[in-house]
Every structure is written in structure tokens, then in C-alpha cells.
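<instruction>
Derive C-alpha cells from the sequence
<data>
Labelled lines for chain and fold:
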Amino acid sequence: MPPDTTTTKAPPSPDWGKLAYKLLVIATLPLGFLYLLWRLFLKGSWREGLAERFGFLPKNLQALGQSEDTVVWVHAVSAGEVGVVEPILRQLRQAEPQVRLVLSTVTYTGRTLAQRKQLELEGIFYFPVDFPGIPERVLRTLRPDLIVVAETELWPLLLAAAHEHSVRTCIVNGRISTRAFPRYRLFRPLIAWTLRNLDLLCVQSELDRERFLALGADPDRVAVLGNTKFDEDFPQVPPEETAKWRQDLGFTQEQPVFLAASTHPKEEEMVLRCYHQLRAQMPELGLLLAPRHPERGDEVEALITSFGYACQRRSRPPAEGTPAPADARVQVALLDTLGELTRVCSIATVVFMGGSLVPVGGHNFLQPMSQHKPVVFGPYMQNSRDLTELALREGAALQVRNAAELTETVRGLLGSETDRNLLAVKAQALLARNVGASRAMVKRILPLLERT
């Protein structure tokens, strides 16, 4: 009897990383439940779109998943990341007009901003929680060919499920902040397993590349391509619109305006103290506060009035025919709306970019630069490390160490048109020299679609 030469194919080895992460998630389920209750009932930020967060997509996206069209799912956490992916979406649309683009966000502000930007999307939905079974449900429903994630959104179960379903995945504008890097290293085995499920990482700088490699990324899949924030479609605001903004916010056409943009709790109080000191020498100075989270409008208004100032809110314009304040020069205005900050920057004389006097990490200061405005920020700028270093090296922005230095720096800029113009000119040169990252990233992304 001849020997049996048939072989039995060995079953695929289990994904031990996925199994370990699932066990970790299940073990921390009570904490996750408490977090969900906090989001739902105390903070209230997850009440809208709760079904989507658990993987139940709206009917239009269910229909899209049943079609034979190529679907690209782009994810941006909040408003800042929407700005990051906007030029990517434009470049993808231009390069592959037939591709169907969908966008997910975590926050309401991100979703609202994306809707206002009119990004030619097939749909917008809330990002599903990374809990066993939920990412798989979304992938079965949407059936994307590619998932594009902004910056450092490493969701282990989603990326693992995408890998199992042969869905290509990539990071765009990838970065790892100095503050976050030590925390990631504590969980290097988990991070390394997650990174192995990515097909491409497009990162901002060589330092970001080194950090991703130290965490276990494949060197052949990491490309340094720059920062897409330079490719944002910044509007050009005509003089008549600037004049209308001044009128609507209660300022005269001549008075200087100090704009504090994307501020956070405790920061508004520092800015108001700074403004109070500046007015001792410049009584005509106006202040415009634009909190990072507009839903804090009532809280910020109460703080403004506690300093003895009238407050004109963008979301609550005065009734038609209401007389202007007797002394508009002491008016403090509050921009408590979404999607208007870049255009409103046109009225500013000097701009302070918030999230930087408190340990938040700073925010994108290219918006006021695009409107030819001098920019000042505080010491906490780790979220935009490379951009900050570049701006400071080229003399396109000023950094202060504390609120006292902010007062002195703003005072100096308000008193010197020459210094303001010099910063604005250098900022324009900075913007012009660094465009093109989104085009380079899309060029690297398109082959992933060809391989699906």
C-alpha cells in the first residue's frame, strides 16, 4: 500500500495580540461602563449618535456598503483633525472622482465643522467604540476598501479587524508628541501589535518616524511627508466682510482688537487680567475671546461679566434697532460658534493662540497667520512641536513663558506696526514654503486602493 502523501493544511495561528487586548477590554468593562454613563448623563456629549457609536450606521451608509463602489473611510477625532484631513479629502476627490468618501468623528464639534465645510462626502457618522464585535459590525456594514486615520488614532480592535477583512489602513499626518511618547512606550507590545496592522504611516517629521519605529512600526511602511495643516484652504476675507465682523461683534472700525483664540478653562481668566492691564495704557483696545469649545459660552460670559465688562456673544446678536453700547471701546466680544474663527481673525490686531498657557498642548496657529496676523503662544505647544519649532526658527511667531510675558509681548506688538508687519510677512513665507504634504500623502495612498 503506497504511503499517504496528502498533507493537511495547518489552521491559521490565533492572533494572540487581539485576544490579549479583548481580555483587557473585558476586564476593564466596569470602568468603561462608568465612562459611558459620564459621557451620557453628566457630560452629555455622547447622547447624539449613540447608535452609531455602537456600530449601527444610518441607512444611507448601509446602502453604500451594499454597492460595488470603492469606499474610503476617513477618520478625524475633532475639529482640529477635520482641518488635517480636509486637504486629503480634496486631493482624493481630485485624483479618484469615482471613490465614495465617508468621514467619522468622535466629537460633536468635529462633526458640525465637517458638515459646514461641505466636503463632498457620502456621509458622516460617529466613530464606533473600540469594543469587541463593534468594529467588525461597522466593517460588515460599510465594507470600506481603505481606512484613513488622522494623526495618532491607534484603535487596536478596529485595525486588527480591518487587517482580518483585508481592508487597507493608513495614518496621515502621523505624530507622537513628546508628552505622549513615554506613555506609549509603557505599552509597547500592544502598540507594536497595533502598528503591524497598518499598511502605511505618513508622518510629519523625522522625529515622528523615529518614535513610531521605536514603538515597533515597520520601517518600510513609514514615510516622512510633512504636515497637511499647511494645505488647508484658508479663506481670503475681503475688507467689507472684515468691517461687517467688527460691526456684528460690537467693535468700531478703528479700534485695535486683541483676539484670544481656542482658549481653555483658566486661560480666559489670564487673558482677561492681561486685557485689564493693557487697557490701562490703551483704553480703546477691544478683546475677542474664542473658547476652543463653544458650548462653554455661558461659563465664559459669566467670567467676562465678573471682570466688569459687557459681553457681546456671536451666538446671541443684539436685536435689530438695539442701540450700541455707550462706550464700544470697552466691549468684550465672545465668539461662541463653530467654523468662523479663521474669518474672524481678519479683525484682529494681535492674536494669542490658546491651549498654550495651560498644559493642553496648543492649537493650530496657521489660521491667524493666513490672515496676515501676528501670533503669540505660550509654553505648552507639544501638540504642534515641529510646527512650533519651525515658526520660531523662522521668526514667524512669538512664544511667551507665562501670562506676565504675554501682557508685555502683546503690549509691544500693539505699539509697533513695524513689528506686527514683520511677523506677518515671515508667516506668509512660512506658509508658502511648506505646502504640498497632502498631495504627497495621497500619492502614497492611491496604490493601497489598487491592491484591494
Observations:
- Confidence is low (pLDDT under 50) at residues 5-11.
- The domain at 239-318+325-433 is CATH 3.40.50.2000 (Rossmann fold).
- The radius of gyration is 24 Å.
